[in-house]
Amino acid sequence: MLNTEDNRDLSLQLFVVLIRAYNSVTSRSNRDIQSHGLNSTEFGVLDLLYHKGPQALQKIGEKVLMSSGNITYVVDKLQNKNLLFRRPSKEDRRVIYAELTEEGKQLFTQIFPQHHQVIIDILNGLEASEKVEAIRLLKKLGLAAEGKTDLRS
């Protein structure tokens, strides 16, 4: 059994390894995204709209973890690139939807398979069973970090 000091040292070591792994994975992913003239936030918005359809601007922020001010900026950039457009809600004038243009759909249809393969290549360092275990452990860690009491796997 580990003593308290050893456990504290392991916690710090795990934190450093986790951050380094995260940085390595996101760096490779971001390089691929940038090769298509996008940044990771723009890609995230296009991905959401492509896979989930039109979304209220407020919901985009929740789903891709952006502040409301940043949503407007990113949507403006994507609209200027003719990849999406804004559409007012018919039911509630306060709600504005973002929707992909045909050009946006075509671009994402073209680049997503390559990006998906990049992600597969990045994560090929783990066997399938290790990926399942990593998912379980990282979910458990995330819940604990959020202070959730139910930490069952």
TrEMBL record:
UniProt cross-references to SUPFAM superfamilies, sorted A to Z: Winged helix' DNA-binding domain
Domain HTH marR-type residues, every copy: 11-143
A matching Pfam family: MarR
One GO biological process term: response to stress
Key words of the record: DNA-binding, Transcription, Transcription regulation
A molecular-function term among this protein's GO annotations: DNA binding
InterPro entries per the UniProt record, alphabetical: HTH_MarR-typ (IPR000835), MarR/SlyA-like (IPR039422), WH-like_DNA-bd_sf (IPR036388), WH_DNA-bd_sf (IPR036390)
Name the record gives this protein: MarR family transcriptional regulator
Organismal lineage: Bacteria, Bacillati, Bacillota, Bacilli, Bacillales
